[in-house]
Here is the input.
Amino acid sequence: MIKTRPAVLAVLSTVLALSLSTPARAAGDAAVAAVPEGTVTAEVIAANGSGCAPGTATVTANADKTGFRIRYYDFVAEAGGGADLTDRRKNCQLGVLVNIPAGWTFAVAEADYRGRARLYSGATALQRTNYYWQGSSDNSSTDETFAGPLNSYWETSDVAPVLVYRPCAEQRVLNINTELRVDSGTSTGKNSMSMRSSEGDVDTLFNFSWVRC
Here is the structure.
């Protein structure tokens, strides 16, 4: 199941345009197509939430410098079939710091989420994502809902048609808050919504757009 969500990063871009003193640059800028020389790294500097105990979420920069990948190792919500009530909602907030070569800045152009769902008839699930930059009190979130019967991989995508870039020569942490929630409803089996890497091609991909400062 694939869903596209153009709203989340579009709204985030608007928020950042108001909260940061960095001019927005259009995606058609000739410099956008370039990729910087030098090393690009990404690291998790903070992890909080019931869906990502310490050491259960990692981030890796793509070798081609196009973005970074987050993998969760114990991120699953369950309801019904004897599941504990506290397992119905799981969340993970990560603080990701991307280190880039001098003279460049970047924006997140797209975020692709992948997971696995097992929902019986009568059950529903929710995936919620929330983004905000360090130092900004403004944020926005968007929900995606799923309904049983469903037993398959799922994918959602957030696309930003207007790009706002991180301030040049500044390090700002990108906070990414993801929530999974399951409601067993009228179903009788154990229902689950997960983003565990052990379940196959399950991860989150963030794609960059680069410009020179």
About this structure: The first helix runs from residue 7 to 19. The helical segments are 7-19. The two ends are 39 Å apart (CA to CA). Residues 82 and 170 are 49 Å apart (CA to CA).
